[in-house]
Fold this sequence. Notes:
Number of helices of chain B: 16
Structural class of chain B: alpha/beta
Radius of gyration of chain A: 30 Å
Shape of chain B: globular
Largest interface: A-B, 29 and 35 residues
CATH topology of one domain in chain B: GMP Synthetase, Chain A, domain 3
Helix content of chain B: 25-40%
CATH superfamily of one domain in chain B: Nutrient germinant receptor protein C, domain 3
Shape of chain A: elongated
Oligomer: heterodimer
Largest sheet of chain A: 5 strands, antiparallel
Amino acid sequence: MVKLSKLIKGNKNKRKAVENISSEHDKKLDKTLKENLAAIKATVGNSYDIVIREINIGSNTSIKAAVLYTDGLVDKNIVNDFIMHTLMIDIREAKTGQVISNENELFALIKNSSLTSVEVNEVTTYKAIFEQLLSGDTIVLLDGFSKGFGIGSRGWQDRGVQEPSSQQVVRGPKDAFSETLKTNTALIRRRIKDPDLWMETQKIGKRTNTDVAIAYINGIVSEEIVKEVKQRLNKIDIDAILESGYIEELIQDETYTPFPVMYNSERPDSICAGLLEGKVAILVDGTPFVLLVPALFIDFFQSSEDYYQRSDISSAIRLLRFFCFFLALVTPSAYIALTTFHQEMIPTELLISIAAQREGVPFPALVEALIMEVTFEILREAGIRLPRAVGSAISIVGTLILGQAAVEAGIVSSTMVIVVSLTAISSFVSPTYNMAISVRMLRFIFIILAGTFGLFGIILGLIIMVLHLTSLRSFGIPYLSPMAPLSISDQKDALIRMPLWMQNRRPKLINQNDKQRANTEEPRPTR
Amino acid sequence: MKYKWITILFVFSMSIFLGGCWSSRELSDLAITTALGIDKHEEGFRVTAQVMNPGEIAGDQLSSRVPVSTYSENGKTIFEALRRLTQSTPRKLYLSHIRMVVFGQELAEAGLAPALDFISRDHEMRTDFSISVAKDMRAEDLLNVLTPLEKSPANKIVSSLRTSQNNWAPTKVVTLDELIATLSSKSKEPVLTGLYITGDPDTGSSLENVETIHPPTQLHVDNIGVFHNDQLVGWLNESESKGFNYITDNITNTVGWVECDKEGTVSLEITKTNTELSGYQEDKKPKIVIDVKSEANIAEISCTIDINDEKTIQDIEKKIEKKLVDIVNGSIEKAQELNSDIFGFGEVLGRFEPKRWQTWGKNWQEEFINLEIVVNTDMKIIRTGTTTDSFVNDIKKNKNEDE
């Protein structure tokens, strides 16, 4: 036992900080251009996508200069029109020769009068150069200066703003976040034109240097949550951040849980709605999925469309989602429990019909259910990963061969096929994918429990599940709120959605500060 | 440390599953029993179980096998007989889905009590099945009849018991709880509905029976059997059974008819009945007052009367009220004759006159026979159907003119 635990435990003390690659470039630039370029070339290993263009500035007493950029990451129009053109042609008109003796003046002249680009800043260290160069900025180095310019020229091939691939709506905005951080922040800013919408960026990932932005509305958000988010982000010490899932896994409250404790969405409207409720969004460069914390259990059952359709219909649909969550969780296990332990609970006619179908099925109900569920999971996984052209073939194989033929061959009963399909369809009702997949896993646990203990096992499982849910926290906020702890006033937007004019206050638990969000009276005809 | 605990928990949780499917039963291991017949036998009891063949009832491909089969076995006790049945049944009998239990007449006459204990004690049996008596025959023979329409004969019987109770009235669905409650009550005697078959029992048990449009052997629901303590003492006829249900307020819908002044009859559908029993003391003797309030619709007229006339309606109401009194009295007389207080008059007196009941109760047998009973009826005709004047009137008028 001790050995086993040691094996699982591993050796913790061996942990070290991730090697810090950038630290050696922390040194200052040299004075001569030649040395600087040589050092940069050596560091990037003469990579072909780092373009270095050496030029002469000024007509008579020319100064040597170099323009550096990363091919593919820059907007070449900016480089040509605002950097190359100004440096090589426009500057001739300025009297460079007169001021060359004064280092600072020349530098200021170029920076303030010549470079017509918007974002210009001075760079003095190699570290800063690489950071800007590899992010798509253009670097201008001058011979004889131990500093250069970093000129904003980012502009790479982008997917553009497209329709979301998940969380589709019938009514509502059809734009989705894309892979570029700037586009994503712009999408949020376009919706919330409020100076209190604050965005802070930092770079995470020693090698990827990924831009991670946190966005929140100052004044609404609880400062503790912002502090907590920043603290957790600062703790991350990793070489690469390739998707927001990395961030999620590294900062979430609880790893050992099947339930998602951070919300993600590629819909700007649902992220904005979260921000307006006082949540914090974490945007990661390179992924359209934006994280939103704190996340509550009920958030995963709410679709942004709930707020765009009539409240009564949305409420009914929300209840349906909860019902389907329950169905997806326990339908197969309830079927197993009833048919193998509690036959007396099934109405006689139904029992006879089920018994008739099970006649000749060689497996016990538990095995039968596991076979069908596993088959379905295989089909589902295959359907997602396969190239789109083959996808339809999978569904044909799945429905015809595995469904119909298996029943006809007497390997599974048709009731079981109905049960499995009902479960499958119910799990697709969930508006968020990550809640749907957690149910997918729990279902198997419930099947095993039902197969060994019957209904007793299912109830046991449900109790444990609810206990676990109540123990979860998302950035300090109880996961099951506003059900546990109960908040009557927050029920207006939980299981059901009340009309908007009734929702004048923000959720209690998240918001400590600016609670009043609206003051609209019930709409009535004025005459 | 955390991992250590997880490991320990994991090891312990594995031991939970060592119980492994305890007491689980696959559906294909069960013989779903729908009816149980219990007869008297020299050895003790003869138990007949009617077992479903699910594949024949709800399967995809129906063969020409019978939808149900019966297995019979003797035993000193019912439980022993049931377990002995496993020698002849391919699977273990599953009793939870029993729809009915039938006692043979012989057993009913000898006393139900010994047979009832098992039924009420066994944990597998639900208590929602109906209990009946096979009239003048053995329960075994009764359960050996195949029925058309309903593939399971037990279902047929229960549904015809229910429909006849709800639409016709002289039958009563008795469940186990009710039977035991009346059996153990001193002031009320139990009743059970009778069942019988017409035709040859042998043809009834073969598929032939359901292959013809008019089955030669048929199952019938009969009237109410009267018990004294746990012994069957006699049978009520149809009208007496109806009277019994009137008194016990067990009528949802029934039919009654009265003679017209001239030739012909008026038929009424009694749609709503409410009976209240009250008990008093009169001259130190107990007295029961029965108030029956009914609502009825005219269902059928085969004589020349004018139902637009309020007087005619009142006339019909009076006639049916009088008839109702006769029905109720007939039922009471029969019960007094059989010396069995099936209506629970004793209970009523116990409720109304608790102190005096203590003295009357000691000698209730005799008191019941000489009980003074007043029957008040109040019948209201609410609707007269979709036509006012019956076209029978026109036909008769034409006939008269022809002559």
